[in-house]
Amino acid sequence: xxAAGTANPAGVALAxxxxxxxxxxxxxxxxxxxxxxxxxxxxxxxxxxxVALMGRNGAGKSTTITSVMGxxxxxxxxxRFAGRDITALEPFRISRLGLGYVPEDxxxxxxxxxxxxxxVARRPARPGVPSWSVAxxxxxxxxxxxxxxxxxxxxSGGEQQMLTVARTLxxxxxxxxxxxxxEGVAPLIVEQMAATIVTLKKQGLSVLLSEQNLGFxxxxxxxxxxLEKGQICFSGTMAELAGNEAVRGRYLGV
Length: 254
Ligand SMILES: Nc1ncnc2c1ncn2[C@@H]1O[C@H](COP(=O)(O)OP(=O)(O)OP(=O)(O)O)[C@@H](O)[C@H]1O
Ligand SMILES: [Mg+2]
Known about the structure:
The protein is globular. The protein contains eleven helices and ten strands. Strand 9 and strand 10 form a beta hairpin. The protein starts with 8 loop residues before the first helix and ends with a helix. By secondary structure, the protein is an alpha/beta fold. The chain has a six-stranded mixed β-sheet, sandwiched between helices. The chain has a four-stranded antiparallel β-sheet with strand order 2-1-4-5, covered by helices on one side. The protein has helices at residues 9-18, 61-68, 91-96, 114-119, 134-140, 142-145, 157-169, 187-202, 214-220, 238-243, 245-252, and strands at residues 23-32, 35-45, 50-54, 74-81, 84-85, 99-102, 175-179, 206-210, 223-228, 231-237. The longest helix has 16 residues, at 187-202. Bound molecules: adenosine-5'-triphosphate and magnesium ion. The site of adenosine-5'-triphosphate (ATP) has 11 residues, from helix 2.
């Protein structure tokens, strides 16, 4: 670290980030046109934490994530990330601050190869954040390593899901927003995805993921928030959620 008295705006920002959650949503409300879908959410993700956003279809999980990325036009409340208020920033600026986003519908470039999909997302390393090379990501996703030159439109849905995560990691994010990583992929890939997220956590990456699969969330997450109709109806550790039959039955259907 630089000595006291040295002007270092980046160092100052990092110090600020250490004393507060890495990501903090305060009183978040979101609207589609006149329809309000989020009602005052308070959510935090600490540095190095993996946190689940759970709840049934339409509960507001994806809207929470897209709101953080600045992709929902009408919002109220405050979103802070790494010591900064990002509420009013454009999505590309939010991304450049180190917020990675894996959308629900993957959005890979189908005409580009696997490797090209990864290369287009490359960003410089960030101080204090795990940084990724193609070789490291191929070690993390061996399936992708076997097909670097294949057009991404010709790989399986599960492989595309892995590619979206690999592409996001090429940006060396501080925190990744993962929208339903286990949805619509084969059970074997779900297991691999869970193992991958556990590995990423060990490397120090922070994650906020949306998930309906309690088994998956229990395997990879530290804490969960359960949403129902755009409101938080439960927040606690995974063990507390597992032990709370009423919440599981009413809001998760398990
Ligand atoms: N683009 C949109 N325009 C209008 N309403 C929307 C739009 N996207 C989502 N909604 C509505 O907002 C509410 C929250 O949806 P959201 O997609 O955030 O839920 P979700 O928890 O991610 O659900 P799922 O598990 O199905 O992905 C739902 O009532 C949904 O119908
Ligand atoms: Mg969703």
